[in-house]
Amino acid sequence: MHGLFFVLVTCTVGASAFRLQQVKNTENCSDHRGFFKHYYELHGEPVVLKCPSPRYKHLDFSALTPNITWYKNGSNTMISGRDEGSRIWAKGNALWFLPVMLEDSGVYTCTKRNSSYCAEVSIHLTVVEKTAAREIAYPQVLFTFTAGKIVCPDLWDFTPNRTSLELKWYKDTLPLEDDNERFIILNGSASLIMTSVLPTDAGYYTCKMSFPFEGVAYEITRTIQLETVEQEKRIIPIIVYPAQKTTSAALGSQMTLPCKVFVGLSSHFQTDVEWLANDTSIDMVYKQRVTEGERQEIVENGENFIEVPLIFDSVEEVDFYTDFTCVARNTYGYQVLPTRVKQEGSYFYCLIFYIFYYYSNPKLSPDLFIL
User: Fold this and answer.
1) pTM for the structure as a whole
2) What domains can be seen in the chain, in order of their start residue?
3) How does pLDDT run across 167-182, given as a tens digit for each residue?
4) With contact defined as beta carbons under 8 Å apart, do 207 and 154 qualify?
């Protein structure tokens, strides 16, 4: 009986949870890329989704003219521009939510077109209650016993005049005062300066900003999980994404899974990043269907990152039984991060399993299978 209950709970969660889904091409759209960009946002706050312009394989979205349309969950109904009283509207390459609600979670597709080409990009949005802010915290890293800064991310869409930026900062829910000698809060800046980072400074920081819009004052909240690293380890690469051990995908869908590596003050060229499948090079296991994308060297807040995407042109069943591993290494050390691709939960498959389980256990009451 307990075993059956576990099966029922597992299948129900798998069927209803937020998952990457295959989005069918529109009639005149020549390509589609499931760009693994995932927005995690708090219920009741302003949100702006940006249509990304990745350069993966032959796809270069930045070359397209800015003719962009938005859809949700494969719907044929286009999200229009702003109407009076509307809470969600499209503007340029952005989709605005004022505010975002729990029911807005889903997969949004932005379509970029010109006279001869069309491309689609799918973006995940997951909205959670404010009590779950730590579960969607932004990871940041600082080195101990040196000056550093924490940056409140993704604010500039709400601050056209950047000099007017005013933030309130909290450490583990306690407000940081302006007269604190170790923390410097700069008006007009998204940064919290630390004069000397200590190991005990690790933890959760929250920045809050007011966003007035047409007479309504909204609150924008960002929670940051700070990791402090010893000074002598500053040149060892740290894999910061993917953060989860499994990634869900639909059979036959396209997917891009990036591996993002923090290299600190080290030069980009000192670190190698690659994907393995069952401890073997991707090129040796897969010919064309699964490939490594273009290496991207990124500078964020004065620190260096490297990102290498793993691109699935079409997810097949064999991928669900393959161990994928991102490896980052340089002459001073390395880090390995394994991840698995998991098939989306299916209500149909769960129902078939229930029936099979019932006929294998005739003493069970049929009432258990009423869903």
Assistant:
1) 0.60
2) 1-17+346-371 (no CATH), 18-131 (2.60.40.10), 137-233 (2.60.40.10), 238-343 (2.60.40.10)
3) 999 998 899 876 678 8
4) no
